[in-house]
Design a protein that fits this description.
This protein is an alpha/beta fold. It is built from four helices and five strands. It has a five-stranded mixed beta sheet, with helices on both faces. Helix 1 crosses helix 2 and helix 1 runs parallel beside helix 3. The longest helix is centred in the last third of the chain and has 26 residues.
Length: 153
């Protein structure tokens, strides 16, 4: 089976968010990827438990970048996130920065912060709220699996 052709773009925007349960360590994520008017929306629960919300946010960003790089060949991948700590880790902490470079290759990586949980009217507010809701739903599903003993943790 042949691979679908990737979209070529100057900029690919990745809006992502995570949700984390401090008691069960269950986590969910969502990403909305846009390039040249094409959208890729995905969400799910993390296979592994997340020690902290910070790690969940970083993993959500990496999942978003995975989706982006599988569908878009971009000169720049632009993250829009509501967690400054995760943004800083992806930019400056060697372990996370190396994963980003491994996935994105030579592409430029940029970041923008969006305020979480707003009723704003801008498109990025709408998309961030969508990601938040989808991540929360996925986290709750994972939490239920953990409580029922059906999670693969």
């Amino acid at each position: 089976m042949t691979q679908p052709t990737k979209i070529r773009a100057n900029i690919c925007t990745i809006v992502c968010d995570a949700s984390h349960c401090q008691h069960t360590k269950a986590g969910g994520w969502a990403a909305w990827v846009v390039a040249n008017g094409n959208r890729f929306k995905h969400s799910g629960s993390f296979k592994e438990l997340c020690a902290t919300p910070h790690i969940a946010e970083i993993q959500a960003a990496l999942n978003g970048l995975f989706i982006a790089t599988r569908n878009v060949d971009a000169r720049r991948y632009h993250f829009v996130m509501d967690c400054r700590g995760a943004m800083n880790a992806l930019k400056h902490q060697a372990e996370w920065k190396a994963k980003v470079v491994e996935m994105a290759g030579d592409a430029e990586i940029t970041f923008a912060h969006v305020k979480a949980h707003t009723n704003g009217t801008k498109a990025r507010d709408y998309v961030n709220n969508w990601c938040d809701k989808q991540a929360r739903r996925a986290m709750h599903r994972k939490k239920g699996e953990i409580r029922e003993g059906t999670s693969t943790r």
